[in-house]
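Weekly modeling sync, notes
Attendees: AB, CL, MP (scribe)

Item 1: holo prediction request
CL wants a bound-state model with zinc ion before deciding which constructs to order. AB pointed out that an apo prediction alone won't tell us much about the pocket. Agreed to run with the ligand included and paste results into these notes for async review.

Input as submitted:
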Amino acid sequence: MRRLYFFGLLFILFGCTYNNEKPGGNSFKNDDAHFDAFKSLYIENLWKTFPDWASGKGNHKYDGTLSVPTDELRVQEEKFVSAYLDSLKKFDINSLSPKNKIDFYLIGNTLREITWNNTVLKSYQWDPSEYNIAGGVAELLTGSTEKLESRLINIYNRLKSVPAYYAVAKENIKNPTLVHTQLAIEQNLNSLPVLEKDILEAVIQSRFKLVAKGDFEDRIKNAVDAIKDFADWLKNLENTNPHSANLGKKLYEEKFQHEIQSGMTAHELYLRAINRKRELHNKMYATTTSIWSKYMGNLELPRDSLVTIQLMIDKLSLKHVHRDSFQIAIENQLPLLVEFVQNKNLIYIDPQKPLVVRKEPSYMAGVATASISAPGPYDKEANTYYNVGSLTGYTNERAESFLREYNHYILQILNIHEAIPGHYTQLVYSNQAPSLIKSLFPNGAMLEGWAVYTELMMMENGYGNNTPEMWLMYYKWHLRSVCNTILDYSFHVLNMDKEAAMKLLVNEAFQQQAEAEGKWKRVNLTQVQLCSYFSGFTEIYDLREELKHKAGDTFNLKTFHEKFLSYGSAPVKYIKQLMLEDTSAVMH
Ligand code: ZN
Ligand code: ZN
């Protein structure tokens, strides 16, 4: 969860506002109307209570506020949470429409998660990287569509609180983990150019020009001093008993419930992942041996099956696009994916919403693969972009390694995952589901699960002509999601060390050394997020099979997909409840 701070408490509670209105004859309709009004107030007050969170979600009302994370602030947050949990109790969930039922659960979940973070997880004590003001400032400077002058005034107002903010950060931090301490030092120092350079340049470009330059310079200097002081303080911190980076079983299961919102426990998911890995290894070995002589001639099969698979993957990875055609290859592929989806009748794709492929903007540079930038609910009309990393500046060697990773086969699966019918298609449907709650607080496991599910679904429907090569590379890609879960659980709950982690990722998941190193860093810094891919995938796949079984011959895949996505970006376990109530919705 992002940093949640509170500023300026103002309660307008459901209870006070609506108690006098008695539901009329049609109580179903009335309760939904009440609940809709309640939701609007809730969001308004949530933003008032957590202004930084509001800015991050594209609501610019509180952009000028930097909240200082004091103990009192957390007390106010708790008041907000318990007041709204009380208000929720006033609704009879059974009287709400299916979509409002999900919103009801989501609001309760968000509120309980805030409390759990503040009172149980307490990462504000052990994760110093939560303290960083530059990200928010940079977003104001470049990410918002407001006029430059009003953005600068907001930045100016925020800068005022920076010294107090870092002073409180130092009070909060106790025995931080070593990895998060290191990250905090790096990120805070790396962000200095935003303050020292970017803001001043923007001031000079603005109508304020030099008039305001002096005022800005003073505040920037104080902010920069505070950041440098914070980094020094962290470097010299006497930390003889640092917090462990692994969460342990209890906290891990709890965080998993709050964040992933799965119908399974983390342990159950872990066991599923272990099974899936075994299953994939068997399939991969069988596929490899079936094409062995085609690629390897008379070369004898190695004794170790994992080594055998690795050799075949290396061989197939040599087929890849030229470094200059990476973006054009992606652009050319999208219409083919749309065509395949249409021919096979897999899901309706709105032709009015084309996806714009672009070179990754410079502020994203460095992560040279692909990602989707979608407009938030406050900015619906903006374009959706497929950002493609540029290989400019890569040495030939690095480019070659990258291109082998995103070879001819994997690049297609990547496009399925990111674009069609993966993330991008899901987003179009999500924007049509009129729920601000789900758009603002999408369930990450559902989003990633959908993208991962579509990879297999396309393969099942004959994508890539069912060639063994395509299947083998698909399995390899899928193994990444599976091993993300195994790695996360093993590290945080079973104390897996780096050597064992590298063995898992390199030998058993066939990843490059550099990729595996990156994963090791990520599992040290994050908790449960790496489970979202396999968790969402498993639950969507299970749901589909269950409905298929129930509907028998009348099951229709296209109807299932469209119905599933119509609920918006909600946890699969809630969608499942509603879909199982109405099996006819997935029939012809
Ligand atoms: Zn090559
Ligand atoms: Zn994804």
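Recorded for review: The mean pLDDT is 90.
Action items: CL to compare against the apo run; MP to circulate these notes.
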